[in-house]
Amino acid sequence: MRxxxxxxxxxxxxxxxxxxxxxxxxxxxxLEIGPGPGNLTxxxxxxxxxxxxxxxDPVLAADLHxxxxxxxxxxxxxxxVELPEYNKIVSNLPYQISSKITYRLLARPFDLAVLMYxxxxxxxxxxxxxxxxxxxxxLIAGYLCHTEILERVPRSAxxxxxxxxxxxxxxRPRDHDVxxxxxxxxxxxxxxxxxxxxxxxxxxxxxxEDNLAMxxxxxxxxxxxxxxxxxxxxxxxxxxxx
Length: 242
Fold this sequence. Notes:
By secondary structure, this protein is of the alpha/beta class. The protein has helices at residues 12-21, 39-45, 58-64, 98-106, 119-126, 136-144, 180-190, 198-204, 209-213, 217-220, 229-241; strands at residues 8-9, 29-33, 50-55, 71-75, 88-92, 112-118, 145-153, 158-159, 166-173. 37% of the residues lie in helices and 20% in strands.
C-alpha cells in the first residue's frame, strides 16, 4: 500500500478523537476516502447514520463488504468514481492524492470535514498571505472554508510507519459569492504565473484590457501569493460583470 500512499491509522485514541471532531449524529451521511482495513470506518459507523467508504484496493474493498450494517463500500478511485450525496467528510487521506482529492471535495457541498494530511500539506492549507507556506492551496481553502489544524499525529500511529508526521485538519465551509469550482480553476491558473504581477498573469490568462481597467490597480500590482482570498474572488467577480 506504500505505492498508493496509504498509511493506515491504528491508534485507537486518535481514531476516537477524529470521530469526535466530526461531531457526528445519526442523521449524518459521511464520506470516507481510503478506509483500508476499516479502523476509522468502525468509529464512524458507530455514530453516523451512513458511511460511504471509497476504496481503490479490491481486496480491502471486498473485506469491508458486509462488515458494518450502515457502511456502503464503493470500489474505485476516489478521483474518478461518482461520489454519493453526503454532508460530512472524515478521512485519513492517501498522501499521494492529497491535492487532487482536496480540490475535488472542496468543489462539492458539505457541512464539515475532518481530514488527515501530511503536516507540511496541512500547514499550507491553513497558511495566510505573507507567509512562506501560502500558495494556491491556502488561497483556495481560505476562501471556501474556515480551516484549523486540530492536532499533530506522530508517525507511530500508522502502519506502515510513514516518513513524515501528519496533522488532523477541520474544515467548515464559509459563505462565498464565487462558485467553488470556478474559484478553484481560477486559482490554479493564476498560480501558474506566481512569479509575475497579477496584472501580467491575468493578461496571460486571457483577460482583456477592458477587464483589467475595471480592477483595483493596487491588487493588479501584487503577486498571486500576496492576494487575500477575498481579493482574488473580487477579481473574478469583476471579470464576470464585465
